[in-house]
Amino acid sequence: MSAVKNVIKDNYNMMLLKDYLRKQIKDAGFSHAEISKTPTGTRVALHVTRPGIVIGRKGSGIRELTEKLEKDFGLKSPQISVNEIEKPDLSPNVMCTRMASHLERGTAFRRATMWTMKQIMEGGAMGVQITISGKLRGDRSAFEKHVAGILPRAGHHADIIVDEDIAHVKTAMGLIGVRIRIAIKEKLVPEYELIKDKEEKKKKSSSPAKKVEEVELSKDVKVEVVKVEGTENKAKSETEQIAIEAEKMKTLETLEEEEKVLK
């Protein structure tokens, strides 16, 4: 097999693996996975909002996941580490999954879009762009693009500052695609640093400290858990988080409601 075919095969397997992880540990707020090969095996770093759900009771979840990765995806001696995401609202992967869950629950797409944009901007983003397309209202496909804040659209700085992700939702009307692009202030190049950000950095203290804990599940299995201080969330899972947001979302006024009031 040629080198090109090997690269294509590896990329395809990685795509299948990430799709599996997105579905399997969805309730843990899966963001992304970093996979690297080492002399002793394969190191898999999972970035989630709730590490406890991935590990499971007495390490049952992590054992099942390790066996699955080794058996079905052919990873040699997978060594899994679980990292907690500092700011879930600034992760396009997490926010795409949450918005997709709201659409699956039957929330109006514009209400879900407005709420997601509000959460991202309040989380400290420099800018956000949400594109939603598909069977939104009728039989014909349509798309809408919503933008807030400052978001570079092209060039080298856009590649550095902007993170993006895409999710697909199956609804009664048909398939809907969601694309979220987030510009993160922390990645801003020093020459283009905003004056307001410099003042805020002086006032604010240093970033929250991280705690690295090694949990021994058995003699052979050890899991490294990275926790961030000051990022505790009241919701125990993503399902509870989405249910809480759905209740808060009802108070949000959409453009259609504002137009009715003006008329």
Task: Give a brief outline of the structure.
The chain has 263 residues and is an alpha+beta fold. It has helices at residues 3-24, 51-55, 60-72, 92-104, 109-122, 156-161, 195-203, 238-249, 255-262; strands spanning 30-38, 41-48, 78-84, 125-134, 142-149, 162-170, 175-184, 210-216, 222-228. Helix content is 39%, strand content 29%.
Structure characteristics:
263 residues, alpha+beta, GMP Synthetase, Chain A, domain 3, Ribosomal protein S3 C-terminal domain, 2 domains, four-stranded antiparallel β-sheet, 9 helices, 9 strands, 29% strand
Word description of this protein:
- With 263 residues, this protein is an alpha+beta fold.
- It contains nine helices and nine strands.
- The protein has two domains: 3-86 and 210-232, 2-Layer Sandwich (GMP Synthetase, Chain A, domain 3); 91-203, Ribosomal protein S3 C-terminal domain (2-Layer Sandwich).
- The strands form two sheets. It has a five-stranded mixed β-sheet with strand order 1-2-3-9-8. Strands 5-4-7-6 form a four-stranded antiparallel β-sheet.
- The chain is globular and about 65 Å long.
- 25% of the residues are buried.
